[in-house]
Backbone:
């Protein structure tokens, strides 16, 4: 066994910026709060279970402002006579063509292999929702 292999140099870490989206208690489930990072629009939403999602306001299908869509639940496939509604405030329907995206996973409900919603990490810091996004070249000063 040869232990003298040349190690791979570490990749440069991409710089990030953090954005304050507001008091966590001010988010009603299902309502988007919009913030911006340069020219990027980001919607921040509280799910029914209390988790937060921050997503790029851009539909993966054709680029609509997805955060202007309707947030609701869904009717999953079922047997005749067993129709049920579930997942309130976890699904957003795009305002252009009605594709429905899962706000938990980012996947489109009927096309799970299609491009997903772009999420950014969120955290609660001192009761406020903080979103971390990659810095653009301009924001990095390069
Ligand atoms: S642009 Fe969103 S479904 Fe077409």
Residues:
């Amino acid at each position: 066994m040869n232990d003298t292999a040349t190690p791979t140099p570490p990749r440069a870490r991409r710089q990030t910026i953090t954005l304050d989206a507001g008091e966590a208690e001010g988010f009603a489930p299902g309502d988007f709060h919009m913030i911006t990072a340069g020219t990027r629009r980001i919607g921040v939403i509280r799910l029914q279970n209390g988790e937060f999602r921050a997503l790029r306001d851009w539909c993966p299908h054709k680029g609509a402002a997805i955060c202007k869509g309707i947030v609701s639940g869904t009717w999953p496939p079922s047997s005749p006579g067993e129709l049920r509604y579930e997942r309130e405030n976890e699904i957003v329907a795009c305002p252009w063509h009605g594709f429905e995206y899962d706000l938990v996973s980012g996947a489109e409900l009927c096309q799970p292999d299609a491009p997903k919603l772009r999420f950014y990490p969120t955290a609660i810091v001192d009761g406020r929702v903080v979103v971390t996004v990659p810095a653009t070249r301009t924001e990095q000063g390069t």
Q: What stands out?
A: Helices lie at 137-140. The first helix runs from residue 137 to 140.
